[in-house]
TrEMBL record:
Family matches, as Gene3D superfamilies: Hotdog Thioesterase
Keyword Transferase: no
Family according to the record: Belongs to the 4-hydroxybenzoyl-CoA thioesterase family.
Keyword terms of this UniProt record: Hydrolase
Name of the protein described by the UniProt record: Uncharacterized protein
Organism: Bosea vaviloviae
Keyword check for Membrane: no
An annotated Gene Ontology molecular function: fatty acyl-CoA hydrolase activity
Pfam families assigned: 4HBT_2
Length: 150
């Protein structure tokens, strides 16, 4: 990302998932370390995909591989807070999707951090890009509009 990132509001995101922070998430500066945010991104996206039946971890022929992630930080979060992770879709391509993800303090209006998380869908056996399956594409399209319910 270039330039200053616009801090997004809660209504720019669809489904939310509450994630607890852990004691081990804090670093020596007394706040959650930056690498933990990427774990929250991964958790939010994959939970959404799995809970809706679009991914069978052991058997799906088509899987999404992460090819890019970014994160902008606006305010610190620290243990023992829980955070609310909001999900949306920023770009839906033929074989890829870029998710928009916001990390919010519980009840917060503005994102404490936000980022992007891009999956490229591939054939599990060949690892070559394939079109996003139609049922998943339809669900992702619902998340494309701001505040999609997912």
């Amino acid at each position: 990302m270039s330039g200053k990132q616009e801090r997004l509001r809660r209504d720019a995101f669809g489904p939310f998932r509450t994630v607890p922070t852990r004691w081990a998430d804090n670093d020596v500066y007394g706040h959650v370390n930056n690498v933990v945010y990427y774990s929250w991104f991964d958790t939010a996206v994959n939970a959404w995909v799995i809970e809706r039946g679009f991914l069978d971890l052991a058997g799906s022929a088509v899987v999404g591989l992460v090819v890019e992630t970014t994160c902008s930080y606006f305010e610190s979060v620290a243990f023992p807070e829980a955070v609310e992770v909001g999900l949306g879709v920023e770009r839906l391509g033929n074989s890829s999707v870029t998710y928009r993800i916001g990390i919010f303090r519980q009840g917060g209006t503005l994102a404490a951090a936000q980022g992007r998380f891009t999956h490229v869908y591939v054939d599990r056996a060949t690892q070559r890009p394939v079109p996003i399956p139609a049922d998943l594409r339809a669900a992702l399209a619902d998340l494309t509009s701001s505040g999609g319910s997912g």
